[in-house]
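The step that takes the researchers longest sounds almost clerical: writing a folded protein down as plain text. The outcome of that step, for a single protein, is printed below.
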Amino acid sequence: MTAPDPTIGHGIYRILVCRPNHRLGNTLLLTPLITELQALYRGAEIDIVSEGDIAHDVFKGCFNVRQVFCLPRRGFKHPIAFLRMILRIRRTRYDLVVDPSVHSGFARALTRIFRGRYKLGFSDTPTKALTHAAPKAVAGRHMAKRPVNLVRWASGIDSTAPNRYPPLAIHLNDDEHAEGWSALTALTAHPHGIQGSLRIGIFGNATGAKRYTTEWWADFMATLCAAHPTASILEIIPAHGHSMLRETWPGYYSSDIRRMAAVLAGLDLFITADCGVMHLGVAAGVPTIGLFQVTALDVYTPYGGHNTGMYTGEYPGSDVARRVLAMMETTRAHRHAAMA
C-alpha cells in the first residue's frame, strides 16, 4: 500500500473526480467532496466524470468546476459515444484523479484509464490503478463523508478527528431563489389569509421497499395536520407526474431539479422518504427529515443544520408523525435558544 506523498498538496491545479453514476442522490452526495477540494486546492480547476445528464444541473453553481463529462447511460449500448468521451477526457493529463467510490469496479477501471500524476482511491490491497491507496477503514459509513475522508487522508488531515463536514449544496443563485420563492408563495397562500403559518413540503415517493403506501401517508398527514391545522402543505410531485397524497394539497411538479430545489429552499420543513429528492432538499438548504424503513440510516441520513433521519420500521403513519412533531418542537426550542 502506498503511503501518502507529503507533496500531494502542492502543484495540484487540474483535478478529475471519477464518479460515473446517474442517480440524483449519489450525485448530490458528491457535492461535499467538491467543496472540500475547493478548500484544499483553492487555485485548482475541477472536472467531473458522471453518467447521464443530471450532474450538469447539480454542479452548475460550483465555482471551481470547469467541465462535467456525462457518460451515456448504459454506455455499452452506445459504444461510439462512450469511447469518444473517454478519449476526450484522456486528452488532459490531470495533477490529481480522485476515485471516491469504495466498491465501484467501473469507477476504478476508468481511473486506471485516465491520465493523472496522482491517483487517489480506496483499496486495502496494492493496485496499479492508484498511486495513493487509502485503507477502506478511512472511509467511514456515510456516503457523503467517505470522499471527504479520502482527500483529507491524502492531505495528511486526521480523518478520525471530529471534523466538520461540508454540507450537500446545489448553489442556487439569487434569481433562482427569487423565482422559487415566488412559485412557493403562490402555491401555499393560506385560504384564510393567516400569516406566518408553517410551510411544510411532503414528498411521498421512493423506489421499491423504501416507498410508503398512500394509506400510510394519509394516516401520517392526518396526525401532522391535526397538530398544525394552519400549516400550508405543499406536495412535491414525483417524476411520474402523479400525486402520492390523493391530490389533497397543492402540488408542485418540475422535471428540472434546480427549479425544484429553488421551491424547496423556501419551505420551513421538508418531510420525505429516503430518496434522491430527500438529498435535494438537504442541498437546497431546507430543514429536512428523512424517513427510513429499509436503508441504513447511518449511510444516507441527512446531516448538518436541522436535518435528520428517522428509522420508521413497520410503525403506522400516525406514530411516525407524532415522532416527527416531537422532533419539530425540539428543533424550534433549539432555534429560540440560539436567538436568545
